[in-house]
Amino acid sequence: MQNYVITIARGFGSGGKDIGMRLSKELGIPCYDRQILTMASDKSGIDESVFVETNEKLRGKYIANFLRRMPVTGVLDPQEKDFVSDVNVFNIQAELIRSLAVTESCIIIGKCADDILRDYKNVISIYIEAPRSACVKSIQEKMHVSEERAHQLIRSTDKYRTKYYSYYSGGKDWTNPTNYDLVLNSDRIGRENCVKLIKDYIKIKFGEEIYFA
Questions:
Q1: 97-to-92, 107, 125 alpha-carbon distances in Å
Q2: pTM, whole model, 2 decimals?
Q3: From its phi and psi, is residue 65 left (phi > 0), alpha (psi between -120 and 50) or beta?
Q4: How far apart, in whole angstroms, are the C-alpha atoms of residue 92 and residue 79?
Q5: Which ranges constitute the DSSP H helices of the chain?
Q6: For residue 165, which of 94, 113, 106 has the smallest C-alpha distance?
Q7: Four-residue CA torsion sign, 96, 97, 98, 104
Q8: Which bin fits 110, alpha (ψ -120 to 50), beta or left (φ > 0)?
Q9: pLDDT in the model for residue 67
Q10: pLDDT for residue 196
């Protein structure tokens, strides 16, 4: 196998990004999160602020049309009127994610990547979650906010991620364990052990074809 991809979906405050960054260091491969937005902006010419605004969330008219679920089609040409629409911005990112999957080994945080790459044989999809109390504590320590604010951030962030995932996956629930190869409770086993388990699973799935840097 020439390259492989790890996708990480995560509940807010569960440490999914932190685990992804630790795994990146252990495996010697890049971890993409915010960088996907910059890369998609550079590729398309659309201002990066548009990608930031739609990062794992739906804007107004898409929330209103949520139950209708607009069909997800290919990337539009710059002269077309919906070039900066939510759907086209998603498709630009999805095209980039598919390109990464066939050209390099990497870790991708969020971005509906597990569903975008669901038919790719070189992909391992991970879902990281933790009890609410652990997520609240993690957010308080990282963002220096009150307990009440941490609860609020978890509710709002997980809510818009849920709608985003459902919209672009055709109605799937992003917390459904059957979407993933592995579902890990980062509070019960610890973030470092999450990294170890993922590394072990890479060897189980891909055998000795994988070389860790």
A1: 9, 10, 14
A2: 0.88
A3: alpha
A4: 15
A5: 16-27, 34-44, 48-53, 60-64, 86-103, 113-116, 132-143, 147-169, 186-189, 191-206
A6: 113
A7: positive
A8: left
A9: 45
A10: 97
**Contact in structure between 126 and 180 (CB atoms under 8 Å):** yes
- pLDDT value for 5: 97
Question: CB–CB of 82/88 below 8 Å?
Answer: yes
> How many Å apart are CA 17 and CA 187, to the nearest integer?
14
Structure tokens at 146: 């009150």
**Buried (b) or exposed (e) across 149-185, using 16+ Cβ within 10 A?**
ebbebbeebbebbebbbbbbbeebebbeeebbbbbbe
- Across the chain, which has 213 residues, the per-10-residue mean pLDDT values are 91 97 96 93 87 82 52 56 74 94 96 96 97 97 96 94 90 94 97 97 82 55
Cα–Cα separations (whole angstroms), residue 13 to 134, 140, 155:
8, 9, 11
